[in-house]
Design brief:
By secondary structure, the protein is of the alpha/beta class. The protein folds into two domains: 147 residues, no CATH class; 176 residues, Rossmann fold (3-Layer(aba) Sandwich), CATH 3.40.50. 33% of the residues lie in helices and 13% in strands. It has 13 helices and twelve strands. The strands form two sheets. The chain has a six-stranded mixed beta sheet with strand order 2-1-3-4-5-12, sandwiched between helices. Strands 8-7-6-9-10-11 form a six-stranded parallel beta sheet.
């Protein structure tokens, strides 16, 4: 007797998000997920939002489905880690993690091929849409006046799990090294808005009471970064935004934007960095263009769902049959139920034959 093969079960796309975000947005999703979910459902893919497991045990992720994990740092053949890449509307879809855990840590930036004019225009737009409006990843006080001219600006991050995994030393040690090697420069310290009360912030307030040119402040980060000597942090996104101001970053931890920063691990390295960073040259324009435009996924891209499917396919997992990507491209439409915020970077104009000729 010949047994029939069991029917093939189509794989699902499971999007794992924290419980509070699942409660708030339900199966409609948010951000990049909210853009791609309705389009993929329209072409027959089952897309479900589920609560992100509290464990990192890979066995909790089914082998027959594909998984997008919000702010994950898991490595598995059928999984991509997702999250905002420091600044909206750019997102990670990464097989290693996001931010300090992303594969960009080991990437070799190929900046020689970046068009200088395009990169400069891109950075000018980033600056205008962030610093010009006083906006950042986290809510900020209204912009008032720039107070960071010539100062060392320190961004504290607290002891969240990603920071603990990336730090080369504690934030209290980092503060002490800045104080020892600041060479008379003013020091402005901003605690993290989500973690304002930490051992490091208490240490900062003590230093501010003792030293007249040290201040703990709660002002807009762009008022701090405008004209600053440098930023200092473990691996803060505020230091990444400092690159928009062309302010160099000294990092006391592992980071995926280290290719455009100065990373230190010891007191000797910190002393040298604080002394010399003002004369160091960094490829701000080309690096940001390469990092955000070339390596991340723009939530505003009209072909976002197709690009996500292509990214999934590059992992080797066959989520949808051949031909589906082009089908998704034809179906993509602007969402009518929600007007997205103003993009940081306007959509590129369609490339004409004349423009292609100039490139070649």
């Amino acid at each position: 007797m010949v047994m029939d093969d069991p029917p093939m079960v189509a794989p699902k796309l499971l999007i794992h998000v924290p419980g509070n975000l699942l409660d708030r947005h339900g199966q409609a999703g948010f951000g990049l997920y909210g853009r791609i979910a309705p389009e993929l459902r329209r072409v027959g893919l089952e897309v479900n939002f589920v609560e992100r497991p509290s464990t990192t045990e890979l066995g909790t992720y089914s082998k027959e489905d594909f998984h997008l994990v919000h702010h994950g740092f898991l490595r598995r053949f059928n999984l991509l880690n997702c999250g905002i890449a420091y600044v909206w509307p750019y997102w990670y879809l990464d097989q290693r993690g996001v931010l300090c855990d992303s594969s960009m840590i080991n990437a070799n930036p190929r900046l020689a091929g970046v068009n200088d004019r395009q990169a400069a225009k891109f950075l000018d737009t980033l600056y205008r849409k962030t610093a010009g409006r006083g906006v950042s990843k986290y809510d900020q006080p209204e912009r008032n006046e720039a107070i960071g001219q010539g100062a060392i600006v320190v961004f504290l991050q607290g002891l969240s799990d990603p920071v603990l995994r990336s730090m080369h030393m504690m934030e209290t040690e980092m503060l002490d090294l800045v104080m020892r090697h600041r060479q008379g420069r003013r020091v402005l310290i901003k605690p993290h808005p989500k973690f304002p009360e930490t051992i490091a912030s208490a240490r900062a307030r003590m230093l501010a009471k003792r030293e007249a040119d040290v201040r703990v402040v709660d002002v807009n980060i762009h008022d701090l970064l405008e004209g600053a000597y440098c930023s200092v942090s473990i691996c803060s996104g505020a230091s990444f935004e400092g690159l928009f101001h062309r302010v160099p970053a000294i990092l006391f931890g592992r980071s995926d934007f280290a290719a455009c920063a100065w990373t230190v691990r010891t007191e000797e390295e910190a002393e040298r960095a604080l002394k010399e960073i003002g004369s160091a040259e960094f490829p701000y324009e080309r690096f940001l263009f390469w990092f955000l435009r070339k390596k991340m996924y723009n939530q505003r891209n009209p072909n976002l769902a197709a690009r996500v499917l292509q990214r999934i396919k590059r992992t080797g997992f066959e989520l949808m049959p051949e031909g589906t990507v082009s089908k998704v491209e034809r179906l993509l439409t602007q969402s009518d139920d929600e007007v997205p915020p103003q993009p940081l970077v306007p959509q590129a104009e369609p490339e004409t034959a004349e423009k292609r000729d100039r490139k070649t």
